[in-house]
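Incident review: delayed structure delivery

Summary: a single-chain prediction request sat in the queue longer than the usual turnaround. Root cause was a stuck worker, restarted by the on-call engineer. No data loss occurred. The affected request and its eventual output are reproduced below so the record is complete for anyone auditing the incident later.

Affected input:
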Amino acid sequence: MDELKNGTAAAPVMALIVAGGRGERLGGPVAKQYQTLAGIPVLRHALLAFCHHPAIAGVAAVIRADDQSHYEEAAHGLDLLPPIIGGASRQQSVLRGLQGLAPLAPARVLIHDGARPFISAAVIDNVLAGLDNHPGAIAAIPVVDSLKRSHEGAIIDEVPRDDLWQAQTPQGFHFANILAAHESVGEGHTDDASLARAVGLEVTIVHGAAENFKITTADDLGRANAAHAARLFDVRVGQGFDVHRFEPGSSVRLCGVDIPHDSQLAGHSDADVALHAVTDAILGAIGDGDIGRHFPPSQAQWKDMDSARFAAFAVDRVHARGGKLAHLDLTIICEAPRITPHHSAMAARLGDIVGLDGDRVSIKATTTERLGFTGRNEGIAAQATATVRLPI
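Output delivered after worker restart:
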């Protein structure tokens, strides 16, 4: 992160996402946290939830050194702290992660499994609330099934389920306490709550959620994909419209493709009028303001910025709400340059930016029969419609 979201104010809350496992029970060409769920890596779902939570000042992932390229793909475009290389075990990885966060002096830290993609803002809030009165707090759900103890396949005892809870993450702690615990306790603890209790820290239980399960097997990943699809019944449609005038130049950028022309478009960023309309359409579908609210032209950091970043940000806002961009319909209005020769390249680039297949991206071009400012060849207008599916 260029700076912490909550500035340099005292007592920031950090999130540490543990993503160094191999996930051998799941199988596949990559570790489970880098396999895709609803079209994006499992890890990205978890990262997004913490990145967009207003109480979290910084997010760092703990990864394996040889997963760097997979991590960069999963984290692309997100405002994250640099990844931390983990150790041989989860416990060692968390220790290294905590030591990596120590220079930022967080007051509290939430430790979360990168293979739990369905973490919600409400569960994060519950853990943070638990830390108001306790040195440690974990998300958990009560055990509801009957429990049996077996020996060689035969039931030998019934285990009362009263007061039994199934631990989840995030597990939150006052930072200095959990760092000291990790530095003083040996290996062998199943989670951070167990380690904290080993040094005498009280850990409270707060309510997690059944959907906050950990992906471990291929069945879990299939269940996760089915669960994600089953939740997306709230269909939203957003519209975006933008205009940019011409100024002297040699090419026009549309959908991230530079088209030779005797002028260029004027604007604070790269003036990609098509991507600006797309960004506003996506943000409009989820009621999340517009491009000017998130990327004010008054701020120098956005000067000459590639507008692909704006569109990708809007898609990430959809993903952060557990949703999915389903379709884009874009109309470009101008007399020149001619769009048709560049249509395929523009559609492919737009699909790459927003994560849509070709049959879910429509790009059309039209003129105004030489009427108005576009008819006088003074600039280009673009109009976009985005269809988004959100969970009920």
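Verification: Residues 35 and 41 are 5 Å apart (CA to CA).
Action items: add queue-age alerting; document worker restart procedure.
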